[in-house]
Design brief:
heterodimer, A: mainly alpha, 3 helices, 49% helix, 2% strand, flat, B: mainly alpha, 21 helices, 73% helix, elongated
Chain lengths: 104, 594
């Protein structure tokens, strides 16, 4: 339901015309997404800092060198979440039942 | 040393509540945890108090850094919960809620297994009222299941304690090795309350069935007492690393597809306890500290999340992701507090999860546990995905559900505000919390590496969510139930019952048909008519030989039949048969000559 159109076309259907909220304006949503994508790029590129600064590794030398590679955490987070959602979606096929499944 | 036992104030102070009315009642409700906390401040590390009970020396109070930290935590949780519950009218609900908090405090100060058992059972008995009085469709049944599970846990603990006493002659509650039946029983008892995998279903079953205030209390105490007990009894037990890792992993998959947002929080709770269990399993000073610090932070941010969802439920009467959305327009403050809780559980820098969860991760890395570490990292991304994004997004944003309501009541907002403040405080000034931890720590969460790594992980998890949502791949919120391990007793047992009932009752019916109705009937028939027919068959050729006419033949047959049926044979025949029988028996039994 897009409440912007509704408010303009049917005034008086509600006692008070509803206040416009921040995400009723699609522009604000795009702005937020823009900031978000920018921050993602920024964080990805901030790994460049470690070309000059020492990076503290979680593991002792030689156990898991991949941790220090460029963008490891970002990639891992993205891939993990995609795997998580796709797996969970498949789980629905054999786990999901009707809401009243346990009701007698 | 002038302090009284810290559990007493919460346990018995609450009993005054039904005597008070109006503002006096509200004031007293808030004052009880405050007085308890002040009393607790008077108890120092090393305080021990014992009583003698039926010949047993019971250490009802043993204070060390570990128990004191949990003591403070439970008072804070009770305080926040009390403010949140100010509008609750039911005396029973409030009295049992504070007694529940008191039982938790008593349990963490118990120095021996018997007093620990008493508080352990009290926890079960007092907390079940929060489920029963939830006022939701399944509250009663769910509460019964909850009570059964927790009473079983208590029985296992008692059995373990008794066996241990037999073996060692001591009831002391200290470190135990996971060998022997006694210790395994105690371990299992704690495991049930700690929501180990497959033993976890009581949590996700009952917490969403409690009232908005009930779940806030429930989420704070039971599982954290279990975490305390593991840290006290089984620190460094290797199997805990495996158990904890599984606990961090499997609930996040369930959380993604779960519709009831408080059940999502229940799953994410198991995930967070998993981090603590891993920390306790690793057992190094840093790992134990991480586990305990995370337990502390988890109580606060999980309360905050449950409070915000409770407020939504309180105002709208709805809690399913499929029915909510756009609530930020009506409840902006609640939405804001919820996002603070979400940021804390996701371990964003400056929020509390960041300073505690990472200690467990670092400990896993230092010990070279690559597999465990990768799982924990996966779970960290996952927890942000479902608790950090899904909860606020589907409740407050997403599509506008058209629900317009009022902001949460003031007392709820104040309670959420205090919790949110503590989340940010512990995240920005972790040193106060660190100073209360049982081990000396030299850990600095705010290194450049840690901040960038963690933010990158979280932002790219959010990016994945955004991508999947915008592309329509993300599974929609659906009204549904997802099968979990409790299927085995909620449905499996029912099916077993039905199968048993079908097969056994079928067998019974068959037996009835064949034996009672068939065999007995036939035997009866046989014994009634058989001899007569036999005699008739025997006599017929004889009579025929005598040349009787057909009419006479029929007449004689009828007479004989009646005679035989009435049993009107000469007694001599019976006597004869009896003698023959006796002869056969005697000949058979007598020893053979020679």
């Amino acid at each position: 339901m897009n409440s912007i159109g509704n408010d303009k076309e049917t005034p008086g259907s509600e006692p008070e015309q509803e206040k416009k909220h921040i995400f009723d304006e699609p522009k604000n949503l795009y702005r937020l997404l823009g900031i978000f994508f920018f921050l993602c790029w920024f964080l990805f590129l901030s790994d460049l800092l470690f070309l000059y600064l020492p990076r503290h590794s979680s593991f002792h030398e030689g156990i898991f060198n991949a941790e220090g590679t460029f963008g490891f955490y970002g990639t891992y987070g993205f891939v993990a979440c995609v795997i998580l959602v796709l797996t969970a979606k498949q789980m629905r096929k054999f786990l999901m039942r009707k809401e009243d499944y346990y009701d007698e | 040393m002038s302090s009284i036992h810290p559990a007493l104030i919460l346990l018995f102070g609450s009993l005054l509540l039904p005597l008070l009315r109006g503002n006096a009642r509200k004031t007293w409700l808030i004052l009880i945890p405050v007085i308890g906390f002040i009393n607790l401040l008077g108890i120092d590390v090393g305080t021990v108090r014992s009583i003698t009970f039926m010949g047993y020396e019971l250490e009802v109070l043993r204070a060390d850094k570990l128990s004191l930290l949990f003591g403070y935590l439970f008072h804070i949780a009770a305080f926040i919960g009390a403010i949140y519950a100010l509008q609750v009218k039911s005396h029973v609900k409030l009295v049992t809620a504070l007694m529940y908090a008191g039982s938790a405090v008593g349990a963490v100060f118990a120095g021996d297994l018997l007093s620990f058992f008493v508080f352990w059972e009290l926890l079960a008995v007092t907390s079940v009222f929060q489920v029963w009085m939830g006022g939701r469709k399944n509250s009663i049944n769910s509460g019964i299941r909850y009570l059964l599970v927790h009473v079983s846990s208590g029985l296992l603990l008692l059995a373990g304690a008794a066996l241990r006493y037999q073996e060692t002659g001591s009831l002391d509650f200290g470190h135990m090795e996971l060998v022997g039946l006694a210790n395994w029983l105690i371990f299992l008892a704690i495991g049930i309350k700690c929501a180990f995998p497959l033993l976890h279903t009581w949590l996700v079953d009952s917490y969403p069935e409690a009232s908005p205030t009930g779940t806030v209390f429930l989420s704070a105490f039971t599982t954290k007492v279990a975490v305390y007990a593991l840290a006290r009894g089984f620190a460094g037990t290797e199997v805990l690393i495996f158990i904890g890792t599984v606990m961090t992993m499997f609930p996040i998959f369930y959380a993604v597809i779960e519709n009831d947002l408080r059940r999502v929080l229940g799953y994410s709770m198991i995930n967070q306890i998993g981090f603590m269990v891993v920390g306790i399993g690793i057992g190094t000073p840093l790992a134990i500290n991480g586990a305990i610090a995370h337990a502390f932070n988890d109580v606060i941010f999980k309360s905050l999340l449950f409070m915000s969802m409770g407020a939504v439920l309180f105002r709208t009467g709805k809690i399913n992701g499929s029915e909510l959305g756009g609530i930020y327009k009506s409840m902006p403050w609640t939405a804001g507090f919820c996002m603070v809780g979400a940021a804390s559980i996701s371990a964003f820098p400056l929020f509390s999860g960041f300073v505690s969860k990472s200690m467990v991760m670092v400990a896993a890395g230092e010990n070279g546990m690559l597999g465990v570490w990768l799982c924990l990292l996966f779970a960290s991304a996952g927890v942000f995905h479902h608790a950090g994004i899904k909860i606020p997004f589907f409740a407050f944003f997403a599509h506008d559900s058209g629900i317009r309501t009022r902001e949460a009541p003031l007392n709820m907002l104040v309670a959420m505000g205090i919790a949110a403040f503590l989340c940010v405080f512990n995240g920005t000034f972790p040193w106060l919390l660190y100073s209360l931890l049982p081990n000396e720590v030299d850990y600095h969460p705010y290194s450049l590496t840690h901040v960038i790594n963690q933010t990158q992980l979280l932002f790219f998890s959010a990016l994945a969510f955004t991508y999947l949502k915008l592309s329509g791949i993300y599974p929609p919120e659906l009204r549904s139930v997802n099968l979990d391990a409790d299927w085995f007793y909620r449905n499996g047992l029912q099916r077993l019952n039905r199968a048993a009932s079908w097969s056994l009752n079928g067998l019974n019916a068959w037996a009835h048909r064949v034996v009672v109705e068939g065999l007995v009937h036939r035997l009866n028939h046989f014994f009634r008519h058989g001899p007569a027919r036999f005699l008739v068959l025997l006599m017929r050729p004889y009579w025929k030989l005598h040349g009787l006419s057909e009419e006479e033949l029929i007449h004689r047959e009828k007479a004989l039949y009646v005679q035989a049926e009435l049993g009107a044979f000469p007694i001599g025949i019976t006597a004869c048969l009896a003698v023959i029988m006796m002869a056969v028996v005697l000949l058979g039994l007598l020893p053979k000559p020679g």
